[in-house]
C-alpha cells in the first residue's frame, strides 16, 4: 500500500491461479475467503492432474468437480492450455518450476508472486482498504504474535508441511524412516501444544492466524492421502491425535473459508494418479470414509478410550 508501489492494491486488478489438490495453493485460497476478498481478487482452478508439462487448464468441454475449475479466464489467454504459458508470458526466459499458487497482475500481464507464504501475508493486510471492518479485524499475522508465529511456522514447515513430502518421495529406506519419524515427533509436539492450550479453538487460542491456515492444509490431506500414499502411517489423525483432529474439524465445519476450499476428489485424484512412480497403476483408494468426520463423531477406538 506504499505510494508508488509497483503492484498497488486495486479491486479487480489481480487474479489467483490455484489447484485444489495443492496444499500450498489452498493456503492462499482459504486466506482470500477469510479476508473477504472474493470481490477484490478473482481466481480459477487448474485441472487436478499434474503432467509432464505441469499444471494444465481444463478445456471448455471438461466438467470437473469444484467451483471455478475453468479454462484460463484472463483476456488474451484464450489459447493458453497450461499454466507454464502464464509464466513465459511474464518472463520469456523463465527456467524455474511452474508451480501454484500464482498471483497475477492483469494490468501489467505479470506474475506478482508464486510463493504461498508471501501471498498469504499480502492477503492478510494489503487489501484492507477495500473490505468491511469485520474482515479487517481478522489479522492473520498480528504484530504482537509475529515471533511466536514465525518460530512455529519454521518447524511446522520443515517437519510437517514438507515432512510428508520428504517421507513420500524418499528413495531409500533410511531417508524415509528418518523423515517419517521426524514428522510424527512434530505431530506429537503440535498435539501437546493444542492439548495444553486452553484459550480458544485455534492454534494460538481465541484468534485465527496464518499458522492455522498453514497447518490445516496439510492435516486435512493426511488421512485421505498421506497415510497410504506417502506411507505416513505410524498413526492417523482421526484415531491418533484427538486434539489436532478436533482443531482441524472446527476449522472445516465452522468456517466456510476452509470447507469450501477443500475439494477431496481433486486431492485424492491428483496424488494417486499423478505420482505414477509411487502408484504405477493410478488406483485411487476409496477410503478413509468419510474423508473428514463430523465434529461430534469419533472412530470406535477413540470412543472406547473416551
Annotate the secondary structure layout.
Elements lengths: L13 E5 L4 H12 L7 E4 L4 E2 L2 E2 L28 H7 L11 E4 L4 E4 L2 H10 L7 H4 L9 H16 L1 H6 L4 H24 L13 H20 L7 H4 L1 H13 L1 H4 L4 H11 L25 H6 L1
Parallel strand pairs: 1-2
Antiparallel strand pairs: 1-5, 3-4, 5-6
Helix pairs in contact: 1-3, 1-8, 5-7, 5-8, 7-10, 8-12
Radius of gyration: 19 Å
- Low-pLDDT stretches: none
Strand content: 5-15%
Mean pLDDT: 97
The biggest beta sheet, please? 4 strands, mixed
Total helical elements:
13
The helicity comes to 40-55%
Class by alpha and beta content = alpha+beta
Strand order of the largest sheet: 2-1-5-6
What sequence of helices (H) and strands (E) makes up the elements?
EHEEEHEEHHHHHHHHHHH
* CATH architecture tag of the largest domain: Up-down Bundle
Shape designation: globular
The CATH topology of the largest domain is Glutathione S-transferase Yfyf (Class Pi), Chain A, domain 2
Number of E-state strands: 6
Alpha-carbon distance between the two ends: 51 Å
CATH hierarchy, class of the largest domain: Mainly Alpha
Amino acid at each position: 500500500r506504499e505510494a508508488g508501489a509497483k503492484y498497488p492494491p486495486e479491486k479487480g486488478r489481480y487474479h489467483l491461479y490455484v489447484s485444489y489438490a495443492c496444499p500450498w495453493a489452498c493456503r492462499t485460497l482459504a486466506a482470500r475467503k477469510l479476508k473477504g476478498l472474493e470481490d477484490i481478487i478473482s481466481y480459477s482452478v487448474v485441472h487436478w492432474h499434474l503432467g509432464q508439462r505441469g499444471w494444465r487448464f481444463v478445456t471448455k468441454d471438461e466438467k470437473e468437480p469444484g467451483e471455478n475449475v475453468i479454462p484460463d479466464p484472463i483476456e488474451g489467454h484464450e489459447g493458453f492450455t497450461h499454466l507454464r504459458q502464464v509464466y513465459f508470458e511474464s518472463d520469456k526466459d523463465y527456467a524455474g518450476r511452474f508451480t501454484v499458487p500464482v498471483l497475477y497482475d492483469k494490468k501489467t500481464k505479470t506474475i506478482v508472486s508464486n510463493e504461498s507464504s508471501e501471498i498469504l501475508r499480502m492477503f492478510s493486510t494489503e487489501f484492507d482498504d477495500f473490505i468491511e471492518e469485520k474482515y479487517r479485524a481478522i489479522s492473520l499475522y498480528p504484530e504482537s504474535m509475529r515471533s511466536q508465529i514465525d518460530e512455529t511456522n519454521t518447524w511446522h514447515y520443515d517437519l510437517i508441511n514438507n515432512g510428508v513430502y520428504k517421507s513420500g518421495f524418499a528413495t531409500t529406506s533410511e531417508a524415509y524412516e528418518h523423515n517419517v519419524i521426524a514428522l510424527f515427533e512434530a505431530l506429537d509436539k503440535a498435539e501437546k501444544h493444542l492439548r495444553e492450550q486452553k484459550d480458544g479453538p485455534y492454534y494460538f487460542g481465541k484468534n485465527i492466524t496464518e499458522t492455522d491456515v498453514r497447518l490445516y492444509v496439510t492435516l486435512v490431506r493426511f488421512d485421505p492421502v498421506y497415510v497410504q500414499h506417502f506411507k505416513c502411517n505410524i498413526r492417523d489423525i482421526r484415531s491418533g491425535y484427538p486434539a489436532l483432529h478436533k482443531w482441524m474439524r472446527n476449522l472445516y465445519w465452522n468456517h466456510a473459508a476452509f470447507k469450501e476450499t477443500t475439494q477431496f476428489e481433486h486431492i485424492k485424484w491428483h496424488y494417486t494418479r499423478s505420482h505414477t512412480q509411487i502408484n504405477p497403476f493410478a488406483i485411487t483408494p476409496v477410503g478413509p470414509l468419510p474423508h473428514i468426520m463430523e465434529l461430534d463423531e469419533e472412530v470406535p477406538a477413540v470412543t472406547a478410550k473416551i
